[in-house]
Amino acid sequence: xxxxxxxxxxxxxxxxxxxxxxxxxxxxxxxxxxxxxxxxxxxxxxxxxxxxxxxxxxxxxxxxxxxxxxxxxxxxxxxxxxxxxxxxxxxxxxxxxxxxxxxxxxxxxxxxxxxxxxxxxxxxxxxxxxxxxxxxxxxxxxxxxxxxxxxxxxxxxxxxxxxxxxxxxxx
Length: 171
Known about the structure:
Elements: E1 4-9, E2 12-17, H1 18-24, E3 27-37, E4 40-46, E5 57-59, E6 61-63, H2 71-83, E7 91-103, E8 106-118, E9 131-138, H3 139-148, H4 155-163, H5 165-169
């Protein structure tokens, strides 16, 4: 059985299997973490085994809380599971909502708790089942790369940068 995540059905929050949530385009809870270091943000390239948007570049960590899990606990858990980052304390920056087609008949309709993590030096140990590559990039260079090759970035990263950059990055 897949992970049960919080999704709204008929106006009520209920546990729904993650894949079904995306196939049905249900509004659901999510978490995104942006890791920043000296004017750069950490990007991850999603593993090819991911069931949607494989091989695309995204922010440091994107996920769904499990049923009954807080956004903060989820952010900490996934920083460790995806990037090998332990004992990190991300800071809540706000909640945003978006709806995006992620291919394969799936829709991400997410109510996302956004967290940031400021670091100076970290040892990133990506889980190859989650992350196939990572890099640090300035926001200017990232925006330039998205303009030149939008197809290599996840829909939600493009939405975050165009609609929520001030809330996330303070710019």
